[in-house]
Inverse folding.
């Protein structure tokens, strides 16, 4: 795919990767001639993973890159019924396996907590900060 056709969500553009991470990815490219991580797009051509590889390819003037297509989902959940909703990202193994009403185990600023899922949504790239991941989900009547 032509690199100029890849769309970048504002949340990626607003958060530059750490210099150490970019240096490591750059070093890998110099040693192997390959990008260290895959560039993954959603069905609309928006980058959902592989931002560092995208940046290296752009900086090196690479016009065409191989891409994979994937999906990202987020959950909106609260710590108590009627409480303030927060957002977490679902890891790949839990995509399309979580429903409203499920209990999710998540990492918060105050440690690992259980929250009740209010909604599951496709990631739209408009979240204001990097998202934390759901650790696991306790489904109604079982474990996911």
């Amino acid at each position: 795919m032509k690199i100029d056709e890849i769309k970048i969500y504002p949340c990626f553009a607003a958060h530059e990767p750490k210099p150490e991470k970019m240096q490591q990815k750059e070093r890998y490219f110099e040693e192997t001639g390959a990008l260290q991580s895959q560039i993954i797009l959603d069905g609309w051509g928006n980058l959902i993973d592989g931002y560092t590889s995208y940046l290296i390819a752009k900086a090196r003037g690479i016009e065409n890159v191989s891409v994979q297509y994937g999906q990202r989902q987020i959950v909106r959940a609260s710590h108590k019924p009627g409480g303030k909703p927060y957002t977490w990202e679902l890891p790949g193994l839990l995509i399309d396996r979580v429903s409203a009403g499920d209990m999710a185990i998540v990492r918060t600023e105050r440690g690992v907590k259980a929250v009740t899922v209010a909604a599951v949504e496709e990631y739209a790239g408009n979240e204001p900060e990097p998202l934390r991941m759901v650790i696991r989900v306790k489904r109604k009547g079982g474990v996911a």
